[in-house]
Amino acid sequence: MSASATRTRSLTAANTYTDVVSVTRKLRADILQVLDHYGYFSADCAEDIIHDLRLMIDEEILDSVELTWRAYGSHSVLAAFRYDVISGDIAFADNRPGGIPYRPDLKNARFNVVVGYNAAGRKLSTTDKQSLGFKLTWGPAGHFDYSAGSWSSDRYYVSNRIGLQRLAFNRASS
Fold first, then answer.
1. Which of 17, 22, 103, 135 has a CA that sits 20 to 30 A from residue 160's CA?
2. Cβ distance 54 to 62 under 8 Å?
3. What are the residues whose beta carbons fall under 8 Å from the beta carbon of 6, sequence distance 6 or more?
């Protein structure tokens, strides 16, 4: 039995599926670290999230994904990690995944995985998106307030011409 490591696309020069898998394995490690810290969702749900994000990256419809924490009843973000999709000639070193610290104040926070589609992704209808084989239903995220902090570059997950830049949201001390 043999398997092909490349999926072809008619619209753009394709990244190899192996590169997409390599990059999303690091995102998977981060999501599993969140699961280990807080237990917000099941391991099966974490795998479904990664499956869908891998599809979005492979289909070139994802701009970013955020892991966010908010206090219940509030739009104010307590903490977040954003992963911006980067492609082309990437001049950044590939970093190890993880390093998401446990914070006791986030144990009872509201956790969300927020997907940001690029222009191609925003043009797809809900039916078109579901026909890609998503395991989860991705709906509107609502309002998130980032005014109480700032973003800083944290890590890069890179494989050849595809990658994710991880940014950390740091809430200002009161």
1. 135
2. no
3. 14, 16, 17, 18
